[in-house]
Design goal:
- Strand 9, helix 7 and strand 10 (about 215) form a beta-alpha-beta unit.
- The protein has about 350 residues and is of the alpha/beta class.
- The mean pLDDT is about 95.
- It has helices at about 10-25, 45-55, 70-80, 85-95, 125-135, 155-165, 200-210, 250-265, 295-315, 330-340; strands at about 30, 40-45, 65-70, 100-105, 120, 140, 170, 185, 195, 215, 240-245, 270-275, 285-290, 320, 345.
- A ten-stranded mixed beta sheet has the order 7-1-2-6-3-5-4-8-9-10, sandwiched between helices. It has a five-stranded parallel beta sheet with strand order 13-12-14-11-15, with helices on both faces.
- It is about 35% helix and about 15% strand.
- Bound molecules: threonylcarbamoyladenylate and magnesium ion.
- Magnesium ion binds near residues 144 and 152.
- It comes from Petralouisia muris.
- This is Threonylcarbamoyl-AMP synthase.
């Protein structure tokens, strides 16, 4: 159901969100927009409801969920303690695209945390999400609303592709603002650690709390150090096609992608190319799509998952993509692209 403001009044929207909240209170599932990606919500304190999320997504049951809250007081009830530094980050970045991991309290069922004694919590910066959380009882467990292994949904249509017939309601708030999932910071150990990069960067976090580490498991495919966030170990965010990143100077990348795309096309493969506003006209083979402009890294983040899904719909078999700088939100973009590519990258 639509909850955008165009043809209906605010009261009508509120009623729809309240109805969605009732579904959650009764143990059901509702997909809803947040500022990062669409979430698939259920009552986080009801083990049966959490179980339904795993079922609808086809998600492994050892992969814990994030509990979404709407105010700071509610945090105290689901965690054992809130470290001072976490409180500072919450003051600065909540509501917003930041998830923090704490030791869980007794009321949080192990079904929600994938069997862990820790719990991930986020206060999203989206009015509809906050209202849904309140009307749903205050604690909404929500992973991204994609089928397990597919790119996260950045529009309600993406949710429908994956969840049609499996859930009773999708709140359609239009395209999301950020387009990649929240930054995750783990406070369950002495020194806070980033388990998943996002649009809140390590530098922004350091400015508030001082030292923060990066999960060494994020660096590359490193069998010695598996990522600490269970969800980061799966081949994830992935299109059906094989995705190959090409890194280097603008001219060399374009030359290489043209060469590879021509070869694949001549072998009879259906080819996709991911370029930018600045470069898209320089590609001669395959279906070329612009992911955004290099002048605005946020535009690239916003379109990444949507583009992967568009290529899926075209039944493209192989995608060659430009690669992007790792500064700022670029680190998160690079992390998601490398995972979607199964770490296939060519440097020229
Ligand atoms: O932006 C977001 O965070 C979105 C929106 C809907 O809020 N949600 C999201 O959830 O991305 P999900 O389930 O797709 O990703 C959650 C990640 C997974 O990699 C999971 O393994 C990790 O967080 N995680 C959750 N609880 C954890 C815990 N207690 N310890 C370590 N990792 C945890
Ligand atoms: Mg996800």
């Amino acid at each position: 159901v639509s909850i955008t403001d165009d043809r209906q009044g605010k009261e009508a929207i509120r009623e729809k969100i309240h109805a969605a909240g009732q579904i959650i209170r009764q143990g059901g599932l509702v997909a809803f927009p947040t500022e990062t990606v669409y979430g698939l919500g259920a009552d986080a304190l009801n083990p049966l409801a959490s179980g339904r999320i795993y079922e609808a997504k086809g998600r492994p049951s050892d992969n814990p969920l994030i509990i979404h809250i709407s105010n700071m007081e509610d945090l105290e009830k689901i965690v054992r303690k809130v470290p001072e530094q976490a409180r500072k980050l919450a003051e600065k970045f909540w509501p917003g695209p930041l998830t923090m991991i704490f030791e869980k309290s007794g009321i949080v069922p192990l079904e929600t945390t994938g069997g862990l004694q820790t719990v991930a919590v986020r206060m999203p910066n989206h009015p509809a999400a906050l209202l849904l959380i309140r009307s749903g009882g205050g604690y909404v467990a929500a992973p991204s609303a994609n089928a397990s292994g597919k790119p996260s949904p950045t529009r309600a249509e993406h949710v429908a592709e994956d969840m049609k017939g499996k859930i009773p309601m999708i709140l359609d708030g239009g395209p999301v603002g950020i387009g990649i999932e929240s930054t995750i910071v783990d406070f369950s150990e002495e020194i806070p650690m980033i388990l998943r990069p996002g649009c809140i960067t390590a530098k922004m976090i350091q400015e508030v709390i001082g030292e923060v580490r990066m999960d060494p498991g994020l660096a590359a495919e490193n069998p010695e150090a598996p990522p600490k966030a269970p969800g980061m170990k799966y081949r994830h965010y992935a299109p059906k096609a094989d995705l190959i990143l090409v890194a280097g100077s603008k001219e060399k990348v374009q030359e290489k992608i043209n060469e590879l795309a021509e070869k694949a096309a001549k072998e009879g493969k259906s080819v996709g190319v991911i370029g930018t506003e600045e470069t898209k006209d320089g590609y001669q083979y395959g279906t070329v799509k612009s992911i955004g402009t290099r002048k605005d890294a946020a535009s690239i983040a916003r379109h990444l998952y949507g583009i992967l899904r568009e290529f899926d719909q075209l039944d493209v078999e192989i995608i060659y993509s430009e690669s992007f700088s790792e500064s700022g939100i670029g680190q998160a973009i690079k992390n998601r692209m490398l995972k979607a590519a199964g770490h296939q990258m060519i440097e020229v």
